Amino acid sequence: MKTAIATASYAGDFERCKLLCETLDAHVTGFTKHYLLVESGDVGLFRQLENAHRVVVDERDLLPAWLKAWPDPLTRGRRRIWFSPRILPLRGWHVQQMRRIALAAHIDDDAIFYADSDVAFLRSFDVGTLWRGEDLRLLRHEDALLRPVPGDQLMWSANAGALLGIDPARKSPHDYIGTLIAWRRDALISMCKRIEAVHHSHWVEVMGRVRRFSECMIYGRYADEILDGRGHFHDGKDLCRVFWFAPAPTDEEFRAFVAEMKPEQVAIGMQSFIGVDTDHIRRLIGC
């Protein structure tokens, strides 16, 4: 089975994405291509990271022409906002999720393994281990939504159900959100067709009108509740250990964080908003 790797990124995360690429090249095997999915204005910057197995993809080649990026006046143009009369205004994190979904229609791999820009691989990892025969690993935190959860997971799960046309009375107890996850290409394509059939509009338009969504929840509920799990097997172990909250760790705290990685964890993630300098991380991990 063929598996590609995809990373949705932007100029503000370029140095973090560069570190991801360096560590991915050093530790990850078993994939076909690594796709960097970026906004049109960032294509030239990210071309520096291309090599024999890494390709930069312009979002204009993935998303509808009517979805356009503009300088965000609320940030004096430092960030972008995506707008169309068909949707509510979208931020970069919304459109990054859409790029991850849209890539499936443009490649011929059997699956896509997603690695965020703020990830660094520290251990060897063979992407082929995501498969059991013809079944792909689906990250599922069993019954996690039955316990108190932070943030908007419950709303994201409910909105995923609405997007997919699932009876609102059927509430999923599971959380499908993770940093290193894999999705089937054929399931992504049929998922988009399902959304379009239910709402009679392009799937990007439907998601853009909802705005509060998680692509992980949408795919997870689709795989489990529409496909009845066909083509997947469940695994609740996170492959990446993530440092979520500020303040940034001290060197000692960072080393302890790495030392406490579980055996199945092959990478770390340092959220960009906590303010860790990428060159400092590079030195600490010896890259």
Describe this structure in words.
This protein is of the alpha/beta class and 287 residues long. It has one domain: Spore Coat Polysaccharide Biosynthesis Protein SpsA, Chain A, CATH 3.90.550. It is built from nine helices and 15 strands. It has a five-stranded mixed sheet. Strands 8-15-14 form a three-stranded mixed sheet. A three-stranded mixed sheet has the order 10-11-13, with no helix packed on it. β10 and β11 form a beta hairpin. It comes from Paramesorhizobium deserti. This is Glycosyl transferase. It holds the Pfam family DUF6492.
Which terms would index this structure?
9 helices, single chain, DUF6492, 287 residues, Glycosyl transferase, five-stranded mixed sheet, 15 strands, alpha/beta
Question: Would you spell out the secondary-structure blueprint of this structure?
Answer:
Elements: E1 3-8, H1 14-27, E2 28-29, E3 34-38, H2 43-46, E4 54-58, E5 68-71, E6 80-83, H3 92-102, E7 111-115, E8 119-121, E9 125-126, E10 131-132, E11 135-139, H4 153-164, E12 180-184, H5 185-199, H6 203-210, H7 215-226, E13 232-235, E14 240-243, H8 251-259, E15 267-270, H9 278-285
Parallel strand pairs: 1-3, 1-7, 2-9, 3-4, 11-13, 14-15
Antiparallel strand pairs: 5-6, 7-12, 8-15, 10-11
Helix pairs in contact: 4-7
